[in-house]
């Protein structure tokens, strides 16, 4: 980063072409987006590749970036009709599906790193956010599709450098430092739990300075790990097992905390992943229990606050490249309304502008089709034809 350039979150404008969806009369948009009909539209208009494990690679029509932007969704809409019964975390996905998914992740991240080898040229991230029903259905931030999906995004650094500074008080920039409940009141026990619970060999703890993107100043205060061996390590199945251990540790912390918020002195949950560390590090920690009391007491007297509580684990977990070119893993408490990019201090303002999008579209599709070609070559799925590209 240029020494004279101010560090801070950036707000970029991303054009999109309006999606030609007709929502049935009397149905809310977020209700329709959970339907099988909407998923059919996603496949037919934006689908790139699908496989027998029900993993669907698609272009993000309402995307974060016009440089590179796609997702893999575990499309269980036709095999699990109850939206609240669908897998929304990797820990809920069958091993054979997860195995294929991890290989797809590796190939797409490898493409992104090869296409954009210079961290000064591009900000690269890949990861997922929880999409379960963890807050009231009437809230405006209820996710549109309750199925687990990954994001793969590239932002040109030049565009970020030229973007205006985002409002630091933007309510969506709530994942780190002073904003997060975990960070504000029990940062030490949060980090200690990860250190003591997780027996990691490939992932090494990263300092906040190593984890932070200099231009944006994010992430802030989150537990982060360096991937030893870089991109080549993503070909190692043991890396993906450790990646899941990070999520399991987060889930234990989150569920244990909110069980204490819900019920004073609640017993340890019966199905935690790390019972010994939950008991010794969390349930015997005064800051942890004091913070649970603080939240519980407020819930009792503040209806609006209580209504916004996300009682089930809500998270974002990503792999990204830092300024020195190292790959970093981090995980964060999720918040209503915020996007995965905001974990790295990038606020995306989407604007309907079909003409501007059309100028970026050919190059974007070219990159997405190259990724698809590599996935097909690795026997990870079959191509999908749409109005914008052929089947192969």
Textual characterization of the structure:
The two termini are 40 Å apart. The protein has helices spanning 29-32, 36-46, 95-115, 157-162, 181-197, 208-211, 237-262, 275-282, 286-301, 303-307, 354-377, and strands spanning 10-16, 47-50, 55-59, 68-74, 122-129, 149-156, 164-165, 203-205, 224-227, 315-321, 327-333, 346-352, 382-383. The protein has a domain at 7-167 and 335-392: HIT family, subunit A. Helix 5 crosses helix 8 (275-282). With 392 residues, the chain is of the alpha+beta class. It contains 11 helices and 13 strands. It is 36% helix and 18% strand.
Notable characteristics:
about 35% helix, globular
CATH architecture call of the domain at 7-167 and 335-392: 2-Layer Sandwich
Share of helical residues: 25-40%
Mean pLDDT score:
89
Structural class: alpha+beta
In sequence order, what are the helices and strands, one letter per element? EHHEEEHEEHEHEHEHHHHEEEHE
| Spatial sequence of strands, sheet with the most strands | 8-9-11-10-5-6-4-3-2-13
Strand content: 15-25%
Extended strand count: 13
**What is the CATH first-level class name of the domain at 7-167 and 335-392?**
Alpha Beta
Q: How many helices?
A: 11
Oligomer: single chain
Radius of gyration: 21 Å
The biggest beta sheet reads:
10 strands, antiparallel
Poorly predicted regions are none
Distance between the termini: 40 Å
- What shape does the CA trace take? globular
List the helices and strands and how they pair.
Layout lengths: L9 E7 L12 H4 L3 H11 E4 L4 E5 L8 E7 L20 H21 L6 E8 L19 E8 H6 L1 E2 L15 H17 L5 E3 L2 H4 L12 E4 L9 H26 L12 H8 L3 H16 L1 H5 L7 E7 L5 E7 L12 E7 L1 H24 L4 E2 L9
């Amino acid at each position: 980063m240029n020494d004279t350039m101010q560090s801070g979150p950036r707000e970029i404008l991303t054009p999109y072409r309006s999606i030609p969806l007709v929502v049935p009369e009397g149905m809310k948009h977020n209700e329709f987006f959970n339907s099988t009909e909407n998923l059919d539209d996603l496949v037919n208009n934006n689908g790139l590749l699908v496989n027998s494990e029900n993993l669907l690679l698609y272009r993000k029509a309402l995307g974060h970036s016009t440089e590179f932007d796609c997702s893999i969704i575990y499309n269980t809409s036709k095999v699990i009709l109850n939206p609240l019964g669908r897998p929304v975390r990797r820990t809920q996905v069958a091993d054979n599906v997860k195995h294929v998914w991890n290989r797809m992740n590796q190939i797409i991240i490898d493409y992104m790193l090869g296409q954009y080898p210079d961290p000064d040229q591009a900000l690269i991230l890949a990861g997922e956010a929880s999409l379960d029903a963890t807050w009231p259905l009437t809230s405006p931030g209820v996710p549109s599709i309750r199925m687990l999906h990954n994001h793969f995004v590239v932002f040109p650094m030049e565009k970020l450098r030229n973007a205006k500074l985002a409002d630091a008080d933007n309510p969506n920039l709530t994942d780190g430092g002073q904003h997060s409940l975990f960070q504000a009141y029990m940062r030490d026990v949060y980090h200690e739990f990860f250190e003591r619970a997780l027996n990691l060999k490939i992932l090494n703890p990263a300092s906040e300075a190593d984890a932070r993107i200099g231009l944006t100043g994010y992430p802030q205060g989150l537990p982060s790990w360096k991937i030893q061996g870089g991109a080549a390590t993503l070909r190692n199945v043991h890396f993906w097992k450790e990646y899941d251990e990070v999520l399991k540790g987060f889930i234990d912390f989150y569920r244990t905390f909110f069980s204490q918020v819900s019920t004073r002195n609640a017993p340890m949950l019966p199905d935690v992943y790390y019972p010994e560390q939950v008991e010794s590090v969390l349930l015997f920690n005064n800051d942890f229990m004091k913070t649970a009391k603080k939240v519980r007491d407020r819930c009792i007297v503040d209806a609006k606050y209580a209504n916004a509580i996300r009682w089930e684990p809500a998270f974002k977990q990503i792999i990204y490249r830092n300024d020195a070119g190292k790959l970093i893993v981090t995980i964060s408490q999720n918040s209503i309304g915020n996007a995965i990019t905001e974990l790295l201090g990038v606020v995306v303002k989407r604007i309907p502008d079909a003409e501007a999008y059309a100028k970026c579209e050919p190059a974007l599709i070219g990159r997405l089709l190259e990724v698809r070609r590599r996935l097909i070559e690795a026997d990870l799925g079959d191509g999908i034809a749409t109005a914008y590209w052929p089947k192969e």
